[in-house]
Amino acid sequence: MVGIQDLRRPGLLALQTLAVAACYFAAGRLGLMRQLVVQGAVVTPIWPPTGVAVASLLIFGMRSLLGITLGVLLVVMSITTLQPAVIGTLVGNTAAPVCAYLMLRRVGFRTDLSRLRDGVALVFLAALTSMLISATAGVGLLVLLDKIDASSFWPVWLAWWVGDAMGVLIVTPILLLLRTARRPENLSRWTEASGLALIACALVPLAAYSSISLLFLVYPLLILAALRFQLAGSILCALFASTAATVAATDETGPFARLTQVEVMIKLQAFNGSMALTALLLSAVITEQRNTRRSVEQACQDLAEVLEHLTAGDTPRGRPSKGAEGVRHPPAGE
What we know:
- It is found in: Cell membrane.
- Its main location: membrane.
- It is globular, with a radius of gyration of 26 Å.
- The protein has two domains: 166 residues; 124 residues.
- By secondary structure, it is mainly alpha-helical.
- The longest helix is centred in the last third of the chain and has 52 residues.
- The chain contains eleven helices and two strands.
- The N terminus is likely disordered.
- Strand 1 and strand 2 form a beta hairpin.
- It has a two-stranded antiparallel ribbon with strand order 1-2.
């Protein structure tokens, strides 16, 4: 029996490594479909692989590190040839998710994102702080190799950093949500979700492609989704709106028309970032308040049962009576 388990463990680890690498590579190819040119450097407004990497580490632990490294290597090989400089990109894109995972584990992060502190930790530790590593390593490497001028460092660095951070803010919560997703049994919830989806399908394209800047119309929809469906509703709404806005920005249509590449990048990333922050933090606050209310209601119900038993003169279940504790039974023979 021990021998069979020993054989299974390397097989499961290899399968897990290949699955993580495949997901990372697929997310990378998906992210490369939409690009912006900033100061002569090509950057992606949203880089989904960072979200895949952080989610893999949170779900599988450090066992997924090899799969992440392999995924980074496959993505790099798909867009350029293997060069010594690739090592810098490999190290930066692997170290950033690992740093995010270690910091989240240090602060007691919960993958269900049911507390405000979990949402804040994901935003400020995993997304904004850890992705400084990948952005600095990647853009610094471009400067050292004379791919971009030193004067272009900060604009390119900002675009790179925000793209990696957006991958964590949007993709990681969705993957963590899919891990614990349950099908709602109440038919009315399906009806409400379908109605909300129809409204989103009509409102989001209008906001993203209208020549008038109507991106602010997404926020009431985002708030409604968070109020009714918490993280599941808000993050899916944010993903849809972010995707539509990214497509419009890269096509330079709608509110992104007649803007320079830098202005497009700033406007798009400001919208995506504020929307992702709203979705995460608002849903975390609502979920935490609902859990607190359930705890208070349960405590009140337990207290009411105890008072009911005391009023009736009975002993509450599981609680010995005070009189019974004070009676000393005489030993046999007294």
